[in-house]
Structures are given as structure tokens and as C-alpha cells.
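FAQ

Q: What does a record look like?
A: Structure on top, sequence underneath. For example:
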């Protein structure tokens, strides 16, 4: 049967790899803990779960830096990251994990700030199981102030539900971030407890230089450059020794660099580096299918559920 004209794939998380390792003593094979059929079923089940999602889950991609001058780009990355952290303070909201979002953005070649917009938001949201995406931009104004603007995009409909903005001078840009955070909670209908509000009110750093270094670390991490990310987070901590988030992120990057890579679908274990490389090479022909297929007419296209293609690859290692 010919494939539909529109083909979507579920990137690395749907390329499920199981390894059977040789035993230490005798060259015998260890049987997989889960059979290929049950593995296939788990992947398809996860795919179906993507469409429906569960609870209120948000994702905050990198913010766009609106001016041709890219000096504000690190701040845009940092502010998006701070905003995601602030939103996660509420027990009523769930934020997509940074590592999971970063891997997807790299896979879709959307890791650059501002590459996730109203057109690409529905696809990104579906793949990370988010109901809403918070899209943002940081723009310089003629009066020496910066404008931070955000939009809440609904993944199901593709519509922008709320648009908010705040202004502040460069030295006090985190005041704008905090103002936006509290307005977002109001727009989302979330009432903070006193303890949650106190956590959101805390500013991570008073140093613009440290925040910029932190933003460069976020950018490097999203691009998959763990060594540079660690260096920038450590630089931010040196510039401001009270910048706890920078120290925590540096330690987190180092920890994850020594463990298996993350997968996009919860419940499926990470891939080790050699197998991940094979999966990446197998992905390339599928990229061509995705990129050369006709675009979906709109996020509400009724044909979407019937034009998904799941690719399951099982690799047994001797």
C-alpha cells in the first residue's frame, strides 16, 4: 500500500531500540526483557497518548530576539528558561522537561531562538504532549527599554489564546520577566499558594552579565553542546556566586553527559551513544519524507490521525 501524501514521524522516541548483550563469561545471549511485539505496542500506545495528552502541560521554547543585533539573544534564552522555571512552581501546571524539549527541537532543526512560532507550535506541542506553548520575544525599544512579549498558543486549535507584554530597562529586565510570569498565571486561571508565590518572586541573579552567560549555557544545551553549556553555566556562577540556578544547571549538564541520552517518549529508556548514532543515520531518509511531503492544511485537519506513520526498529546487539 502506498504511503499517504502527508507523512509524519515521531522522531527518536519512535525508533525503539533494544539491546541483548553478550554475557560476561560465555558468549551466550541474554534474552530481551520485553518482546518486540510488546515493545511495538508500547510505542503505539505512547503515540496515541500524544494526541490526547493529560492534565495541563506547557512547553516554553526559546524566545525570539527581534533585532538584527544578536547581543540580546542570550538574554532571550535565559528569560525563556526563567519563565519555564517560574511556571513550574505551581502544582497545577506541568512543564515539559528541558532535555526532552531540546532533543525534539534539535531533531526538527528548531533549536535556534525564535524558530518555534505559531506555524510550528502545533507540531512541537503534539510531539512533546503539551496542551499549550508559551511563545515569546525580546525586542529593544527606542526609549532604551526592552519589551518582553509572550503569547499562549493552543496546540489543538493552533490559535493564540493570550498575548501579554512588559517593558523594563536592561538592568532590570528580570522585573519584566516576573511581571509576565504573574500575568501568565492569571491568564491560565492558576491561583498560587503563598509559598508558590514566594518562590516565583525570587530573582535568580541581579547581574546582567551572569544572566547573559546563563543564557549562552541554555543555548548551548539546547543545541546539544554539553561542554560549552557547562562552561557557560560555571561562568555565570563565577560572575554571581549567589546564582544557584547556574550551579544546579552546570551540575545537571555534567551528570546527564555521563548517562544515556534521553528519549522523547516517557517510559522508553535512553539510548547509549553507539546505538543513538545508528538511529540518527536511520532517521535521515525519514527526514526527507517529512520535509518533502505536502504540509498539513491546518492544525485541525481531520485527516491527521489517519496519516501518522510509526516506525519501530528493533536492534539486537550480539
Amino acid at each position: 500500500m502506498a504511503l499517504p501524501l502527508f507523512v509524519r514521524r515521531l522522531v527518536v522516541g519512535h525508533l525503539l531500540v533494544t539491546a541483548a548483550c553478550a554475557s560476561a563469561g560465555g558468549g551466550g545471549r541474554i534474552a530481551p526483557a520485553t518482546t518486540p511485539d510488546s515493545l511495538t505496542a508500547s510505542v503505539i500506545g505512547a503515540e496515541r497518548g500524544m494526541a490526547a495528552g493529560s492534565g495541563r502541560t506547557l512547553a516554553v521554547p526559546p524566545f525570539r530576539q527581534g533585532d538584527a543585533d544578536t547581543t540580546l539573544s542570550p538574554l532571550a534564552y535565559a528569560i525563556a528558561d526563567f519563565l519555564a522555571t517560574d511556571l513550574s512552581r505551581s502544582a497545577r501546571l506541568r512543564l515539559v522537561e528541558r532535555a526532552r524539549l531540546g532533543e525534539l527541537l534539535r531533531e526538527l532543526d528548531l533549536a535556534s531562538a525564535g524558530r518555534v512560532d505559531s506555524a510550528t507550535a502545533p507540531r512541537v506541542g503534539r510531539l512533546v504532549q503539551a496542551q499549550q506553548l508559551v511563545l515569546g520575544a525580546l525586542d529593544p525599544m527606542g526609549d532604551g527599554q526592552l519589551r518582553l512579549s509572550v503569547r499562549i498558543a493552543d496546540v489543538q486549535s493552533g490559535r493564540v489564546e493570550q498575548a501579554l507584554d512588559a517593558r523594563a530597562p536592561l538592568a532590570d529586565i528580570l522585573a519584566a520577566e516576573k511581571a509576565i510570569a504573574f500575568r501568565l498565571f492569571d491568564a491560565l486561571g492558576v491561583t498560587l499558594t503563598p509559598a508558590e508565590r514566594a518562590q516565583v518572586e525570587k530573582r535568580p541573579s541581579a547581574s546582567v552579565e551572569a544572566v547573559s552567560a546563563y543564557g549562552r549555557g541554555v543555548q548551548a544545551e539546547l543545541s546539544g553542546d554539553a561542554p560549552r553549556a557547562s562552561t557557560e553555566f560555571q561562568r555565570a556562577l563565577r560572575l554571581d556566586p549567589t546564582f544557584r540556578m547556574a550551579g544546579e544547571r552546570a551540575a545537571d549538564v555534567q551528570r546527564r553527559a555521563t548517562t544515556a541520552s534521553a528519549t522523547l517518549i516517557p517510559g522508553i529508556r535512553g539510548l547509549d551513544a553507539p546505538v543513538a548514532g545508528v538511529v540518527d543515520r536511520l532517521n535521515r531518509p525519514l527526514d526527507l519524507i517529512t520535509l518533502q511531503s505536502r504540509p498539513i492544511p491546518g492544525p485541525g485537519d481531520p485527516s491527521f490521525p489517519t496519516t501518522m506513520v510509526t516506525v519501530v526498529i528493533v536492534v539486537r546487539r550480539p
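Q: Is there anything notable about this one?
A: The beta strands are 57-59, 64-65, 94-95, 132-140, 145-154, 160-169.
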